[in-house]
Structure formats: structure tokens, C-alpha cells
Design a protein that fits this description.
This protein is α+β, with helices and mostly antiparallel strands and about 350 residues long. The chain has 9 helices and 5 strands, in the order E-E-E-E-E-H-H-H-H-H-H-H-H-H. It has a 5-stranded antiparallel sheet, with helices on one face. Helix 3 packs parallel to helix 5, helix 3 packs antiparallel against helix 9 and helix 6 runs antiparallel to helix 8.
Length: about 350
């Protein structure tokens, strides 16, 4: 969030960065160093003066979300790690089984290791089928994002939180409904922040700011944050998908070369394509789980949608327009997450 801070009496070594949202609306960020303590100062040029926001300079710190968000976020991360760890362990076990099957040795220890790896692969499959960590991962992620959306609407004074007299009651009610709808996740919640504030002081403070201040905060901490995240993830997924495709092609070529060697040298029993073929199948399965190319395209589309949405900022002239803008922005963020959840749920079935 942004907090009012006085301008230092003396400044030196000023770093200046300007981020334009349109031809007439922009935010200027300056890093001024007074002694040894840097200050990050944000000004809104649309208000006409450098020392704007009713004469205040604003210092950026992240808005603190309700404690329920942190609990759901950690639960989602744990279940994601569990699911992907089980999948990787299963694939690794199968690849090692293929390696050992190249030349079976008449030794009880060798046969025991072979059987142990097969049992391990089976155990990973059974655990995934019983625990279903991917479903808890998706459910906890959906809960965390819903709480985040609700928190931003409250802090911005958007619908249904416009009236201060009822805002806190609506916020508590909505959080309670979200928690009730996801009560099955209770066993996955830890106690680190369960007793923390559900309506944080940062959320309350932002509500008291002027419309232009709230808009500047929302553009910087929410819209720009989401735009940057989707842009980075789009590029990262596209690059990873391309690299996996190249690597998979290399594996196929290597397997074909090994096959040709076996034709020319049948006596070379240690040269066998099965392990590398199974390695390729595992890589292909990982690509299907992660869906790099699909996510890259979807995230790029969302980033462009956010970019178009961002251009509406200069047109916001009253609280009703701000509330509508917040609704549309949060709907865009939620729509992508809903689509992600649908894709993941279909894959898990």
C-alpha cells in the first residue's frame, strides 16, 4: 500500500523512473537517498503538482491481505509440491526400472532392487489416487485468489463495499461464506496465521484515501503487478515449452540412433533404447501436466486484456466509475484463474 511520508530535507543520488499509463496519466517513481535511508516516492502527474495527493508524498509497501489468504496460499503450495513430487518420483522409478531391465543379472540383490523400484512406482500411483493432492491444490488456490479479490474490492471501496457503515460486515460475511464453501480444506490449514487479522489495517487505511490515491494504489499494486506476472509467466511457459519440445526431439533422435546401433551390432546388449524411450515418455507426460504452451498462450491473452483495461484509468472521474473499473479488472483476473482451474480439473479427472 502507499503511506504518507514527508519529503527529506536533503536528497542526493536521485533515480528517476516514469511509467506512463496513457498520454495524460502516469506515475512517476523516484528513489531519493537522504543519508543512508532510501525513499521510494510515487507521484501522480494527473493531479497537476509534483507534491500531490493533498500535499503528501507516498511510500510504497505491499498491502497485507486477510490471514485466510496466507493460510490458503500455503496450503496450495504444499499440495502442489506434494502432487508434483509424487509424479516425479513415479517417473524416476519407472526410468530406473527400464535401466535395470537392460541387463538382468542373476543376483538376488539386483532382482530385489528391480522389484523395489517397481513397488515404489506403484506406491506413488496409489498415493496420488488416494490423497488426490492436485484437487486440494486447485481448491486452495481458488480460495486464496477469491480472498485476494475480495480484499482489493474492500480496500478500494468498490461494490459491495461502498458504504463504510456496512463494509466491514459485508467483508466478514463474504470471508465466512468462502471459508464455509471450502471447509474440506480445514485439515490442510496450518496455524501460523489462522488467528491473524482478516480485515487488516492496510486495507482499512486505503479505504480512507481519496479516489485518486486509491486508483494510483490499485494501478501500481494490483493492475501493474498482475500485468507483470502474466507477461513474465507467458514468456517463461512459452520458452519452457519450446525447450522441452527440443529436448524431447533430441531424446527421440537418440533412441533412433541406439536402435540403428543395435541393428548393426546385435551383440551390444548394454545398448538398448528402452530406458531413453521411457525417459521421453516421462518428459511428454510432464509437458501434459504442466501444459506450458497452452498456459503461455492463455497468459499472453490475459496480459493484453489487462493492458487494454489499464488504458481506462484516465477516464475514471468519480467513485462509481472507479467501482466499475475495479469490478471489470477483478473479473478479468478471476476469469483467467477460473479457466486455469477448469483446465487443471479436467486433467485431474
Amino acid at each position: 500500500m502507499f503511506r504518507a511520508q514527508p519529503l527529506p530535507a536533503q536528497t542526493s543520488r536521485t533515480f528517476h523512473h516514469r511509467e506512463s499509463f496513457s498520454a495524460t496519466w502516469s506515475i512517476t517513481v523516484e528513489l531519493l537517498e537522504s543519508g543512508s535511508r532510501p525513499k521510494l516516492i510515487v507521484t501522480d502527474d494527473s493531479l497537476g503538482a509534483r507534491n500531490n495527493f493533498d500535499g503528501r508524498l507516498l511510500m510504497t509497501t505491499p498491502m497485507k491481505y486477510p490471514a485466510l489468504y496466507a493460510v490458503a496460499d500455503r496450503a496450495s503450495a504444499r499440495q502442489q509440491s506434494l502432487y508434483l513430487g509424487l509424479v516425479l518420483a513415479e517417473y524416476a522409478s519407472l526410468v530406473m526400472v527400464a535401466v535395470l531391465s537392460v541387463n538382468m543379472i542373476a543376483d538376488s540383490r539386483y532382482i530385489f532392487a528391480y522389484g523395489l523400484l517397481l513397488a515404489l512406482a506403484l506406491a506413488m500411483l496409489v498415493l496420488r489416487s488416494i490423497l488426490k493432492p492436485e484437487r486440494r491444490w486447485y481448491q486452495a488456490r481458488a480460495l486464496a485468489e477469491s480472498v485476494k479479490t475480495t480484499a482489493w474490492k474492500f480496500a478500494m471501496g468498490a461494490r459491495p463495499f461502498q458504504e463504510d457503515a456496512d463494509a466491514r460486515q459485508y467483508m466478514r460475511q463474504m470471508l465466512q461464506e468462502l471459508l464455509k464453501a471450502n471447509h474440506s480444506l480445514g485439515s490442510q490449514f496450518d496455524g501460523k496465521t489462522s488467528g491473524g487479522d482478516q480485515i487488516t489495517s492496510e486495507m482499512e487505511t486505503i479505504r480512507t484515501l481519496s479516489r485518486s490515491e486509491r486508483l494510483a494504489i490499485y494501478m501500481h499494486d494490483r493492475v501493474e503487478d498482475q500485468l507483470g506476472w502474466y507477461s513474465r509467466e507467458s514468456k517463461a511457459n512459452a520458452n519452457t515449452g519450446r525447450n522441452f519440445a527440443i529436448g524431447l526431439g533430441g531424446i527421440y533422435v537418440a533412441a533412433f540412433v541406439i536402435f540403428l546401433v543395435r541393428i548393426c551390432q546385435p551383440a551390444w546388449i548394454y545398448v538398448h533404447p528402452d530406458p531413453i524411450i521411457l525417459l521421453g515418455a516421462s518428459a511428454l507426460g510432464w509437458m501434459q501436466i504442466k501444459r506450458f504452451n497452452e498456459l503461455g498462450a492463455s497468459y499472453a491473452l490475459t496480459a493484453n486484456e489487462i493492458g487494454i483495461l489499464k488504458s481506462r484509468a484516465p477516464e475514471i472521474v468519480d467513485d462509481e466509475a472507479l467501482s466499475l473499473f475495479i469490478d471489470d479488472a477483478e473479473e478479468a483476473f478471476s476469469r483467467e484463474h477460473t479457466q486455469w482451474l477448469a483446465r487443471r480439473s479436467a486433467l485431474a479427472q
